[in-house]
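User: Hey, my collaborator sent me this sequence without any context and asked if I could get a structure. I don't really work with proteins. Can you help?
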Amino acid sequence: MKNGKRKLNLLLCILPALVLSGCGQAKEAELVPAAEPTWYAVSPRTTPVIRGDLVPAYSARLDLLGYEVVKYRLTRSEFDEFYGTYRMTLDQIHVSVGDAVKKGDVLVSFHSEVLDQRITDNERVISEAGREIEHLRKLMRIDPSLDYGNRITQLNRSIEVARLYIADVKETYGRLNLVAGEDGHVSYISSVFIEGYIAPDMDMIRVETSKRLYTVEKKAEYSFHTGEQVTAKLRNVEYPLTVVDPPEGENPDLVYFRPEGMDGELLEKNLMLEFDLAPLKDVCYVNRQAVYDKDGKYFVYTVDENEMCHAVIVEPGDRVGNYLIIKSGLNGGELVELP
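Assistant: No problem. I've predicted the 3D structure and written it out in structure-token form, which is a compact way to encode the shape of the chain:
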């Protein structure tokens, strides 16, 4: 009789705990096919099991092929030469954000009174030497006995040296001016740089380069064909694309897309491509959050009209968006608990 009272007391203790805790405690019990626990749920969150057609979607991020940001700046040593030696100042910014540039285009030119004075001085040497040479030749034509050959040779040598100095100054200008190293599009110009302020290792201009194609890895659920036209999006802006053959030397396991109507424009680094695939006919599916996995076994908690929870073993199929196809264990129309 005492054993019977102890069992009764134990049951009375367990029952309130189950009622107060709902399904939470029961989920920790070991679930095996031979035993399907049942308990009472307190106001469970539920979602229906659906049977019908399900439309899967293709979704992928497209990456711009060969994307690189080229940063134009002065190193510390260049900065010291720039200001300390040549006292250079900003002359002109030749580009704007969004402009297309070719390799070798001058992005920014600078002005240096020091270098300009060198050019002026050497141009004066050339001019004065040239006038003196012309004068000496006239004298020799008037009086053939006169010979200024050595002096003319010295003057020609001075002209040659002056021209070398001028060429060196122009080379220095070319080296210190910002020149595009690759084809691309200007994506950034520093606002403080526009005002004429420059600091070492500060990005003055950035140019984005790419091969102007988008790529994505091939997926089993959909095969693209050459010439197919699709529409990608970014921030609700649409971008028409055409599928093209893999360029020579590129990865054949990628799909390549050519942007249409965007010649000369700055391209986004990434785009999103999404579209509906062929519908799956008459399948059973449920919110994937309702399906649990324990030791390789999948199950849901169905909820009946009396708010009783029943653990049911299911066989899941493919995931489609936020849904999971159920191959067996459910028929459609059931209510299952959400976590």
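In plain terms: The chain has a mean pLDDT of 86. You can pass these tokens on to your collaborator as they are.
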